[in-house]
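User: Here's a structure from my thesis project, written as structure tokens. My advisor, Dr. K., wants to see whether a designed sequence matches the one we expressed. Can you design one independently, without my sequence as a hint?
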């Protein structure tokens, strides 16, 4: 299961990405239930993740494989492992920063555009880059460019 890659970010396994919540083995290692939380509820890769997990576990000898999906608590980029963050950077994708815990109670609504945080260039390490587009090839990324090395790159947004 540690080899099943994310369909949209194949440099990461589902474990690296932090979507695998639990694994329960039963009946003398013949049955397994894996619980996952997708990166967001409308994730277009969810069915492919489930199918890839079922296939990998069946190939590993499990006769009964169940993949459950839970949405609470919601996935956060804080769940990406340190190894996953390293793999993102090595692939030229700036890893997300850490997200602080959400405050209890009502969520304030503002009509201002999202603030752009400082994102380090994964290629040359420059500390400040510029946003080109709030949305990249996947919903969880944005496109940025480094003024120092002039290279464009993706940044995984903090969620």
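Assistant: Designed independently from the structure alone:
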């Amino acid at each position: 299961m540690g080899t099943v890659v994310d369909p949209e970010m194949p440099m990461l396994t589902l474990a690296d990405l932090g979507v695998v919540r639990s694994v329960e083995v039963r009946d003398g290692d013949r049955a397994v239930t894996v619980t996952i939380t997708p990166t967001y509820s409308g994730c277009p890769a969810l069915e492919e993740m489930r199918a890839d997990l079922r296939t990998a576990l069946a190939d590993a000898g499990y006769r009964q494989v169940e993949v459950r999906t839970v949405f609470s608590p919601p996935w956060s980029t804080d769940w990406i492992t340190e190894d996953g963050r390293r793999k993102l950077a090595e692939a030229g994708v700036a890893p997300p920063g850490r997200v602080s815990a959400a405050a209890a109670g009502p969520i304030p609504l503002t009509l201002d555009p999202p603030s752009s945080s400082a994102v380090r260039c994964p290629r040359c390490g420059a500390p400040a880059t510029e946003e080109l587009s709030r949305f990249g090839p996947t919903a969880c990324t944005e496109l940025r460019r480094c003024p120092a090395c002039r290279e464009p790159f993706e940044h995984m947004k903090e969620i």
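When you compare it with your expressed construct, this may help: The CA atoms of residues 35 and 68 lie 5 Å apart.
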